[in-house]
Amino acid sequence: MKNIEFLRFLPLQGPNIWTYRSALEVWIDIGELEDFPSNILPGFNERLTTWLPTLIEHRCSYEVRGGFVKRLEEGTWPGHILEHVTLELQNLAGLPGGFGKARETNVRGVYKVVVRARHETVTRAALYAARDLVMAAIEDKPYDLDATLAKLRRMVDKLCLGPSTACIVDAADERRIPTIRLSEGNLVQLGHGCKQRRIWTAESDQTGAIAESVSRDKDLTKTLLENCGVRVPEGRLVNSPEDAWDAAEDIGLPVVVKPCDANHGRGVFIDLNTREEIETAYKAALEEGSGVLVERYVPGLEHRLLIVGGKLAAAARGEPIFIIGDGKSTVQDLLDELNRDPRRGLLEEHLLDPVLLEREPAAVLELQRQNLTTESVPAAGRRILLLRNGNVSADVTDKVHPSVAAAASLAARIVGLDIAGVDIVAEDISRPLADQGAAIVEVNAGPGLLMHLKPSEGKPRPVGEAIVNNLFGEDENGRIPIVGVTGTHGKTTISRLIARIIHLSGKHVGLACGDGLYFGERVVERGNRANWGAAHRVLLNRAVEAAVFENGSVSILSEGLAYDRCLVGVVANIDPDDSLPEYYIENAEQMATKVKRTQVDLVLPDGAAVLNADDPLVADMAQLCDGEVIFFGVHPESPLLAAHLKDGGRAVFLRGGDLIQAEGEREFKVSSVDAIPLTENGAVAYQVENVLAAVGAAWALGIGPEVIRAGIELFGTEQAEQQGFKFKTQAA
Fold first, then answer.
1. What's the gap between Cα 405 and its chain centre?
2. Is 320 exposed, middle or buried (0-12, 13-18, 19+ CB in 10 A)?
3. How many whole angstroms separate alpha carbon 179 and alpha carbon 117?
4. 368: which residues sit within 8 A by CB, 6+ positions away?
5. Is the pLDDT of residue 210 over 50?
6. Would you say 448 and 326 are in contact if contact means Cβ atoms under 8 Å apart?
7. 456-481 burial by CB neighbour count: b if 16+ within 10 A, else e?
8. pLDDT score at 636
9. How far apart (Å, rounded) are the C-alpha atoms in residues 287 and 487?
10. What's the CA gap between 17 and 593, in Å, rounded?
11. Is residue 721 over pLDDT 60?
C-alpha cells in the first residue's frame, strides 16, 4: 500500500491562520488510502491504540475523553490520524501541546496537517515518526515505539528550553508578556523593543557581571558578608595540605574543606576531624577549583533559599543520601540501584544528581570512614551514609523564620544579585541563625529552580512567576505599540505613512514593509522586507519604541506573524480577484475569512482594528475583533458608517474634500485632500483610502490631530524624500 507522502512543510513561526502559537503545517498526499478510512482497515485501530493507549485522552471534535478513539471506530482518514499520533508522540517525549488540525484540500487525497510546534526540528521528527507508526499499524508490521520515544526525548533534552527557563517563560505567558528565544540555549527575551528584558536560566539582565564574579569567589563573598554583619563560618584560604591542617587546628575541629570557586557542591567535604581526612580533602578540592577554603563545620542540614528581588521566593532543605545493605549486594550494586531512580541524571531536568564516585570524592571519603569499599557487602539493614548534603528535596518555604529570610535577602544584596540561591546550614530553619550557631555558607548566581518546581516533599513554588514579577511591574506587559497592516493593495504606502506619523510624534519607530527595513528615518535594508525575519529584527531592537509591519498573504500563510498580538490591526481592502491557488486559497472570500482575518484576530482587547467600511469582506471582520473598531471610507453616507457613529464609534471619512475624524456626533477636520500631496488633490482615489487608513491607525494609537495632519501633509514632499521616505505614485 502506498506510503503517506509529505509534499511540503511550512514552519509557522508565529500566529497564523490556524492558531496564535507557532505550528508546523505539512501538506500530505495519502493516495489510495483515501479509500481506506480507519474503520475498514482490519486490526488497525487495535494495533494503534495498543501502541499508544494514551490516545484515549484525546477529546477530538466530541470534546470528551475518548473522542478520538470514537472517531477511529466510526472511520477517519490518515491525515487526521497523523495529526493525533504526532501530538501524542510529542506529549510522550516531553513536549505537551494539544493543538492540531487536519483539513482536506480541493485535490483528492491531499490534506493539510497542522500541529503545535514548540521546536520545529522536534515536531518535524515527530511527524516522520508518526507517519512510520501509522503505516506500520496499517500494514500490520512491527514498530519500535520505545526507540522512537528515546530518540525524541533526546532531541527535546538537547534542543528545547530547560525546566528553569521554561517555568519563567510559562509565567510570562500567563501574564501575556511576549517571549522570543534568542539562542539554541536558554537565552530568552521577554517583551519587545525598548520594553524587553532578558533571562538566561535563572539570571536576568539585572544580574551584574561584577555580582556574578563575586559570587563565584567564595572567600570574597564570605569576607563581604562578614563585614556587613552576616553570620558566616570562620575560615580562610589555604595553600597546601599542611596549611589546611594548620587552619583546621586554629579554627577548631571539625571543619569543612571546599574549593573557593566551584559550584554545585563539587569537592565539598564536611565534618572532617583528622589530619589525614583534611589533607585528602584538600587535594580533591583543589582539583575542582583554583584554591581551597577551610571553614568551621556548622552542624545541621543545608538549606537553599531562593531570593528574588530581595524577597524569599522558595526554600528547600537538603537531605543526606543513604543506601541500605541487603546482605547480598555490594556497595557498587546498591549505588547502581540508587542511580536507576528516574529522578537522577546529569541533565537540568533531573531533580537529583547521580552519585558517581569518580565525581564525588566526598562520597569515597564517607565510605572510607565506614571501613567500606565498592566491593564490600554490607549487612542487611545497615544504613550507609554516602553524602551528608546530597539531595535537595523537601520544600520548607513556610517554615523559614523571618529573620533567616531577612539575612538571606541581605546576603543577596551585599553580593549584588537580583536572583540568588543562598545556602544556609542550620539544624532548624524555623529558628533564628544566632540561636543555633547556624550560618550562610554560599551565595550563588543563576540558581537552579527545579528543586522548587518539583520537590520530593511539600508543594511546588511559583518561582517563575516571582522572577517575572520582579522584572515587570504590575501594570507592565513588555509590549510596545505594534501596528500590523494587511490587504490586497496599498499596504506598503499605509505602513510607511503610519510610521512617518509615529516618528513625528516623537517615538523611535521600526518599520518592515515592501520598500525595506527602517529604524527611525534610517533605511537599514532596501527591497521587500514585509516578512517574518525583518519584523523579528525590529522586535529585538532595544531602541524601538513602536513598530509597523506590513503583512502580505504569502507571508501569513507560509511564515506566520512575528508578533503575538498588536495594538492596531489595519485591513485595507480585499480585491475581488484576490486568490492564491498555490496555497489552496481559491477566491477572495477565502482570502478574507482564512487569511486576512488573522490580522484582526491579533488585536488586543485595548487595541483597535481599522477596517475599510466600503469593502464588505473587510467590514465583516469587525465581529472578530477583541478591541475597538475604527471604520474608514470615502463614502460618508454609508449606512454602516452611520450606524457605527450612532453607537458612539469612531470613523475616518471624506466629506466634500475634507478628511474628517468622527466619534459619535463629534467631528473634527484633520486636513483637506488638496493639502495632501499623496492624493494629488484627491484625484488618486486609492491614495485617499490609504491616507484614511493611516489616519485611523494613528488615531487608534492616541496621536493628536496636529501631528497626524503634519504627517499626511508632509509625506511625499521633497523634505520627506530627503529624510528617507521616497514618494511613490502608484499603489504598493
1. 30
2. middle
3. 15
4. none
5. yes
6. no
7. eebeebbbbbbbbbbbbeeeebbbbb
8. 87
9. 65
10. 9
11. no
Summarize pLDDT for 421-475 with one digit per residue, the tens. Answer: 999 999 999 999 999 999 999 999 999 999 999 998 899 999 999 999 999 999 9
Which string of DSSP letters, residue by residue, matches 295-310? EE---SEEEEEEEETT
Q: Is the pLDDT of residue 383 over 80?
A: yes
Dihedral, CA of residue 716, residue 719, residue 721 and residue 724, to nearest 10: -120
DSSP annotation of 2: P
Residues with Cβ within 8 Å of 101's Cβ and at least 6 positions away in sequence, in order, are 18, 83, 112, 113, 114
Three cell numbers, residue 460: 511546588
What are residue 421's DSSP bridge partners?
306, 444
C-alpha closest to that of 54 among 37, 66, 42: 66
- Give the separation between CA 641 and CA 573, rounded to whole angstroms: 16
The confidence score (pLDDT) of residue 719 equals 42
Cell numbers found for residue 400: 523559614
The DSSP line for 10-22 is EEE-S--SS-SS-
Q: Return the DSSP state at 644.
A: H
596 to each of 104, 570, 611, 625, 662, how far by Cα in Å?
Answer: 20, 10, 11, 13, 26
Q: Taking the model in full, what pTM does it have?
A: 0.89
**How far apart (Å, rounded) are the C-alpha atoms in residues 615 and 686?**
13
- Provide CB contacts within 8 A for 88, sequence distance 6+: 52, 54, 55, 58
**Interval 596-648: pLDDT, tens:** 999 999 999 999 999 999 999 999 999 999 999 999 999 888 999 999 999 99
**Given phi > 0 = left and psi -120 to 50 = alpha, else beta, which region is 207?**
beta
Q: Which residue has the cell 485535490?
A: 107
Q: Are 252 and 245 in contact (CB under 8 A)?
A: no
Question: What is the residue whose three cell numbers read 564525588?
Answer: 360
Relative to beta strand 5-12, strand 23-29 is antiparallel
